[in-house]
Design goal:
Layout: E1 4-6, E2 21-23, E3 27-30, H1 47-65, E4 73-80, H2 86-97, E5 103-108, E6 118-125
Parallel strand pairs: 4-5
Antiparallel strand pairs: 1-2, 2-3, 3-6, 4-6
Helix pairs in contact: 1-2
Length: 132
């Protein structure tokens, strides 16, 4: 099975020894995306809502660079530094994924890189948007 490293300038550069995503023949595994602006490398202002929007844009850009689409996301994991932010994150997440969202786990963590408040990673099918 082939393993390909995915990189795009439309998402933040890795801030450690990891790849933005790894693609195999059938699956894409993304690294967690935070609310970093790819142009500046800094967190976007505006709290959990603004960071969640940026996280999802970054995730979309990585997925598209890997040759797939958001419609092919089968599983996400959301990391929050404060579970009281869950309703705000969840509302933005629902707008992004719409009907038939992927499976998801959400966990509270003690901290995230650069002081972020939300991080999301994804497991994605390779190819065009699938209709389930």
């Amino acid at each position: 099975m082939n393993r390909t490293v995915v990189h795009t300038d439309k998402a933040p550069k890795a801030i450690g020894p990891y790849s933005q995503a790894i693609r195999t023949e059938t699956m894409i595994y993304t690294a967690g995306q935070t609310g970093l602006d790819p142009a500046t490398g800094e967190l976007v202002a505006g709290g959990v809502e603004a960071q969640t929007r940026q996280v999802l844009v970054n995730l979309k850009n990585v997925i598209e660079a890997a040759g797939s689409s958001v419609g092919n996301v089968v599983k996400t994991t959301v990391f929050l530094t404060d579970m009281s932010d869950f309703p705000k994150m969840n509302a933005i997440y629902a707008e992004f994924f719409g009907e038939n969202p992927p499976a998801r786990s959400t966990v509270a963590v003690a901290g995230l890189p650069k002081g972020g408040v939300v991080e999301i990673d994804a497991v994605v099918l390779v190819g065009n948007k699938q209709r389930f």
